[in-house]
DNA sequence: TTATTAATAATAATCATTACAAACTAATAT
DNA sequence: ATATTAGTTTGTAATGATTATTATTAATAA
């Protein structure tokens, strides 16, 4: 944890930004909830628990800054809000997501998987890939199991 | 054009919706600007040119409906608005996009490219893929060329 | 110390989207 | 033909996320 904070502190310094107490509090929340996909409001409420004096605008500003420095990625799953997702340690590219259209759960894939596809895009389209956003929409393992169970019930009532 | 309209009309009918004049006007705009990525406001203004009596709320409702029926896909490139993108004729999956971080241009890729990756996701994550969203961020051909030119100028002033 | 600058908090303003109420249309039943 | 109904549209108000503004505070430099 402290290690990650130190690293982020350095990234900020290298762009002549400071790790203010508010920024640190925000980063700590993001680290604590690394697997979640929090909205700005979510982050704000969580930061407020430990640092009640923080303002919503500051959280927005901090998230925006972290986003510019590629420390977090701003994503949008189609509900009306932006969500902020910490980059995995040392990751060069943003990770992928599996969104279940039944239950809304979001799973993460850290494996890159797109190496070949990016080669094709660079070669055939002449496009120099810097980053990507990949989300699969479908049915998660749990919902598949639930559907099978329901079918069985219908077949043998 | 008429052929596409007919097909969409049938898709609506099969879900017991009608192709009202307003819906048809909206669809026509989407067909005419198939390669663009229009916001609801964009669509509204374009429809208004030919059918000045249409209301903004109707356009939103129509786009929402077309989106539910998978006739258009609702996407978000990170600016604050949703954009509505007609599915390519007969396409089972949504197409991909190349967004240039220099000039903002958006190019389309109709080739699927993700067959293998989806296999891996299904096998290794047990996730049943129904659709996907893939966007590459990077430098488009034009901006690459422009950058090279600039470098040459700097080297030989 | 005093001046300068960066960062924050509180709040107002903006802007995309949605909700709502009244009017309209087309289809169906009487 | 007339009344009824469900579905649709319009214009506008309301909502809600995000951004801009302004006064204040903290940090830094002169
Ligand atoms: Mn994630
Ligand atoms: Mn497209
Ligand atoms: Zn699920
Ligand atoms: Zn470009």
UniProtKB/TrEMBL annotation, chains A, B:
One of its GO terms (molecular function) is DNA-binding transcription factor activity. Zn(2+) binds at residues 100, 103, 140, 143. Keywords: DNA-binding, Iron, Metal-binding, Repressor, Transcription, Transcription regulation, Zinc. It comes from the Bacteria. InterPro entries: FUR, Fur_C, WH-like_DNA-bd_sf, WH_DNA-bd_sf. GO terms for biological process: negative regulation of DNA-templated transcription; regulation of secondary metabolite biosynthetic process. Fe cation binds at residue 132. Binds 1 Mn(2+) or Fe(2+) ion per subunit. Its cofactor is Mn(2+); Fe(2+); Zn(2+). Pfam families: FUR (PF01475). Belongs to the Fur family. This is Ferric uptake regulation protein. The gene is fur.
